[in-house]
Amino acid sequence: MASFTYRRQLTIEWGQCDPAGIVFNSRFFEIFDTGTWQMFEAALGVKAHQLAGAFGIIGIPLVDASANFITPIRFGDVVEMTTRVREFRRSSFDIEHHLSVGGELAVE
Asked: pLDDT by residue for the chain (108 residues), tens digit each?
């Protein structure tokens, strides 16, 4: 099966960070969620709120979530995010996200 990879660039905002200017770990899961919806929109040409009408589904339940934090991402960093479906199964799929700063992997 062909793989679809979605890439985007984002700049870390102060509201995503702790007082030391490092992104709160929980904020990465918001970034992952946004990346997932944007990937599906790019691949399917349908906005999230239009999924029910287009495909007869009202959402995509989250079953499992984890992350590896390799290096801190900080306020003002420009992040390159890569999102892809790692595996499709009969009734579920796995999404993979990689966040890099300056070409170095920071979070997966």
From this structure: 557 899 999 999 999 999 999 999 999 999 999 999 899 899 888 888 888 888 888 778 888 999 999 999 999 999 999 999 988 888 888 899 999 999 999 999
- Nearest residue to 31 via CA among 70, 82, 75, 72: 82
- Beta bridge pairs of residue 104: 101
Q: Name the pTM for this structure.
A: 0.87
Q: Specify the DSSP class assigned to residue 64.
A: -
User: 20-55 burial, b for 16+ CB within 10 Å, e for fewer?
Assistant: eeebeeebbeebbeebbbebbeeeeeeeeeebeeee
Reading the block at residue 95, the tokens are: 């999404």
**53's tokens:** 């009408």
β-partners of residue 10 are: 79
CB 67 within 8 A of CB 15: no
d(CA 69, CA 85): 20
